[in-house]
């Protein structure tokens, strides 16, 4: 069986994140706070965190359903964190710089999109897959 790897240059984490976000209905990209953000009809659902204020990570910040932020951080604090500014409102930071599961990132991005998209676009996007994160032992 032939390998499914793409020939040529591998996509960067930011390029992969951009492709995931822009694949959702009526999504646009806009620079804000010196970082790319992704929006649906002007409503923010994803923001890149490229070592924001000297942080040691490349990540994306996403709005999350009630309780999901705490659950994800509890299950895997190396991959998930409470971002500054928006963390108190339930957003979750997801690291994309440590060989992330891109399937998980795509599912979390879609859930964030569904949090803010208008009803007609939520229907067009379809449901998000369940989020499965196993507890990482310290």
| Total count of helical runs of at least 4 residues | 4
Strand content: 15-25%
Structural class: alpha+beta
Q: Helix-strand pattern, N to C?
A: HEEEEHEEHH
CATH architecture: Alpha-Beta Complex
Q: What is the total number of structural domains?
A: 1
Task: Summarize the structure in words.
This protein has 138 residues and is α+β, with helices and mostly antiparallel strands. It has one domain: Aspartate Aminotransferase, domain 1 (Alpha-Beta Complex), CATH 3.90.1150.30. Helices cover 29% and strands 22% of the residues. It has 4 helices and 6 strands, in the order H-E-E-E-E-H-E-E-H-H. The chain has a 6-stranded antiparallel sheet with strand order 1-2-3-4-6-5. A hairpin with a 7-residue loop joins strand 3 and strand 4. Helix 1 (13-22) crosses helix 3 (102-116). It starts with 12 loop residues before the first helix and ends in a 13-residue tail after the last helix.
């Amino acid at each position: 069986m032939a390998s499914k790897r793409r020939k040529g240059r591998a996509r960067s984490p930011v390029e992969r994140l951009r492709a995931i976000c822009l694949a959702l209905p009526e999504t646009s990209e806009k620079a804000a706070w010196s970082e790319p953000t992704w929006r649906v009809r002007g409503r923010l659902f994803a923001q890149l965190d490229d070592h924001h204020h000297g942080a040691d990570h490349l990540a994306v910040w996403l709005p999350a359903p009630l309780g999901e932020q705490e659950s994800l951080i509890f299950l895997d604090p190396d991959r998930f964190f409470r971002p500054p500014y928006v963390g108190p409102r339930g957003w979750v930071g997801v690291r994309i710089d440590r060989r992330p599961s891109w399937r998980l990132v795509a599912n979390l991005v879609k859930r964030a999109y569904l949090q803010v998209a208008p009803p007609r676009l939520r229907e067009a996007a379809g449901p998000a897959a369940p989020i499965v994160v196993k507890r990482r032992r310290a």
